[in-house]
Fold:
Amino acid sequence: MAHDHHHDHKSTHAHPHSHANTDIDWADMADHLESQAELFAPLYESALGWLGKEVTEPGLIVDLGSGPGVVSCLFAEVFPGARVLAVDGSEPLLDRARARAGRQGVGDRFGVLAGELPGVLSELDYPADLLWAGHSLHHLGDQRAALSAFAERLAPGGTLAVLEGGLPSRFLPRDIGIGRPGLQARLDARQEEWFAQMRAELPGSAAETEDWPALLSSAGLKYARTRSFLLDLPAPASDRARAYAVEIFSRFRDTLTDDLDADDRATLDRLLDPADPAGLHRRSDLFVLGVRTLHTAVRPA
Structure:
């Protein structure tokens, strides 16, 4: 999973909204997940650097819902004395994670475990010193039960780091010169509806107030800290940032069409037209601004 949702996910960086279908084919999204995590690498590096000051040198780090392993491999770089285990329900994504670890020279300290969370954690040979859940918890129906299962797999004194929340990402000014100002705010509202439906349709779904310190405490952990991290890629956008924005808005257009008025649909079409001077491919004011929030808690020694 390793993601971002708009709220963002797996990774990430956008959950398409669709009343017809909230199933997500993670393997099919592999390229998107990988490019998104790579674009957000400065943010993850800041978060992991902060974690490095908060925790003692971990022996075993487990990435819960690792996706293609971009963040897992960053952990291996930031914590050179640690073994890293990438856990995900998609074997094709874990194949990518293993290959990335090999390319980056950390394959000897890197392992993968395929299976669905949280049950697959019963297969861990050793308790973890650091468990990282990056936008994976909200894909589990009973988040409270999942946190308890995560806590049980922590070594005494070990840390659980949960990346949830933050702010919807921004790519364009409020008034972009075409259509009605505030397009992204209206897209955010559709995303929130999709997210609520996605949560409701998960197996064993349980509504939960998103009070992360309270939820972490209810899992038997000692809540530690919450910290938010910023990705600030100002205009003019790089080719990679521009390609990412085009992909996000393409998903919006493909999945939100029925929920938008004709003016917003026309604006999306123009934004995605490579030949339109006002489109994402050519605009000089395109940027990427994102915020991710990290909550930490410690298992009592």
About this structure: Confidence is low (pLDDT under 50) at residues 1-21. The two ends are 30 Å apart (CA to CA).
